[in-house]
Amino acid sequence: MQPTDVEGVFKKQDKLFTINPDYCRGIGAYNEKIVTQDGIEYRSWNPYRSKLAAAMSKGLHNINIKPDSKILYLGAATGTTVSHISDIVKDGIVYAVENSPVAMKKLLQLCKERRNIIPILSDANHPDKYATVVPPVDFVYQDVSQRNQPEIFRKNIENYLKEKGQGILMVKARSIDVSLKPKKAYELVTNELKENGFKIDNLIDLSPYEKDHAAIVLLF
Length: 220
Description:
- The protein is α/β, with parallel strands linked by helices.
- The protein has 6 helices and 12 strands.
């Protein structure tokens, strides 16, 4: 295993891995491959199942997630990517916001096994609703397939992101406007973010891992 420049993420033969915590030894999150090397258990991180892994596989490297980071994750779904972020922030916490009760049931099962995930059944459109649970965070990660993705991102960053924190928005082009080509949809989102005072550090098209999706990394 070779360490990447993201602490807690490793690579072997162009495949990404995170370290499974000792208290989850032998337990995966979504039938991913688990390998052991030098007594350490690693979980394969599939870029076809996780947009963050897809972005890293396409060259994303300048993300400031540390072992003790506090992460606000918007659009947690059933927890595939959440579980790997949980591995990375082994001494931190992931506040996982999900609006679907069906997805939340599976996410709750994951939280029974992983101690540093706080599940929150709520609508990311209304960040004030989880203000009693979520403190200022180091990183905001959003994967919400709604037309107003930039607005949701902005409101949550303004409410929760610490000074000099970082944010990543996973944009689904067809949720912005089905009539537009993906590149044009990404442009609309980046322009809206810039109009609201945000600086774009990077934009990564996630194909072929995720069709019509891009990762937008903000610079603070």
